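Render this sequence as a predicted structure.
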Amino acid sequence: MTTAKLIGLLLFIPFIGMAQVAKDSELFKTIAALDKQYFDAYNTCDLKTQANLYADDIKFYHDNGGLSTVKQDIINSIERNICNKVTRTLVTESLEVHAIKDFGAVAMGLHSFYNNQEPNANATPTKFIMIWRQVNDTKWEIAEVISLH
């Protein structure tokens, strides 16, 4: 076995038993509610709620826009490019939540974005990954986003 294959195998082993949490678990319900809270704010241009949910050290990876690490720049971009123009809907059954020990959770799934300027345009579901950090017993924040279109 080559060194590269061995390293690849060793990197894969921790994920073999990794499964999403049960959909009726408290963690799943919490993350699903946070997803709804964030995207309700996104869809209604509630920039304050969005900013409050982003970590100060946010990392936002967008396949077309690149990496953004300045929270205010992300909020400004949403205001400029999204507000009253785009609506997001979650493909509900696609949502997966995976616990991250002593940190928080990963949410991933499919969502669609509807361009309100083109009401007849088709919206194809795309993948997303959001890493939620648990700050304390009641506060969660979005630490990282990977948005793929």
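Summary. The mean pLDDT is 89. Strands lie at 54-62, 66-68, 86-90, 96-100, 104-115, 126-134, 140-147.
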